[in-house]
Amino acid sequence: MTPIHALLVHAPIAFAIFTPLVCLFGLGAKRWGWVILWLFCFVASTYAAMATGNTDADLVRPISGNGPLDAHETAATTLFSVLLALFALAFLSYGQDQLRYLGKIASIVLSCVILGLTVYTARLGGKLVYEHNAPEAHKRR
Predict the structure, then answer these.
(1) Residue pLDDT, tens place only, 101-124
(2) Helix, strand or coil for residue 87?
(3) Domains of the chain: total
(4) What region, left, alpha or beta, does residue 97 occupy, with left being phi > 0 and alpha being psi -120 to 50 degrees?
(5) How many C-alpha atoms does 98 have within 13 Å on its Cβ side?
């Protein structure tokens, strides 16, 4: 049986890659609502990936050990927290005045930070798979 986390985890990575471009595109008048919708989907996919990862953690921990799994979980939690901050900032930046425009610029910068956090989290997940043999946990079921 294929673990669901392995399927869902790729959606937040794809969202992270395109989010800076989506935020840049959204700077135009009347397009910021699409950015908020995009970020909502990004938040939902990240939450789903984290929830399924938490389910898999109990199976993987005896094989990979605490260190690598805890590092991946901590990175994912940090990513999710910063992503929620971006969502809140983008939501509060909806509108046309100068202060909201600065919020939109800050959203672009924060989306680049999120891309870096996503790459780091994915790298740690890859180490679990390729260096610490995490898929073995699902073969033992």
Answers:
(1) 999 999 999 999 999 999 999 999
(2) helix
(3) 1
(4) beta
(5) 0
